[in-house]
Design brief:
There is one protein chain. The chain is of the alpha/beta class. It is built from two helices and four strands; from the N terminus they run βαβββα. The chain has one domain. The two termini are 17 Å apart.
Length: 66
């Protein structure tokens, strides 16, 4: 997971996406998420799906049980 202060997709730095993709390759993690200020969406990059979630929605989400 990455966190960035962005209100729109065009404000999200490429380094955020690249570093998340690199970390997912090294850890074999499939749950890719970037927490943003107010942007929500989904991107498919290199056959992987990145979910963009606004901070307020992420904070109010139910905890995931292990």
């Amino acid at each position: 997971m990455r966190v960035t202060y962005a209100s729109g997709r065009d404000e999200i730095e490429e380094r955020e996406v690249k570093s998340l993709l690199k970390a997912s390759t090294e850890t074999e993690c499939k749950n890719l998420r970037i927490i943003t200020w107010n942007y929500e969406g989904i991107d498919k990059i290199d056959n992987r799906t990145i979910k963009f979630t606004s901070l307020w929605r992420w904070l109010l989400a139910e905890p995931v049980s292990a």
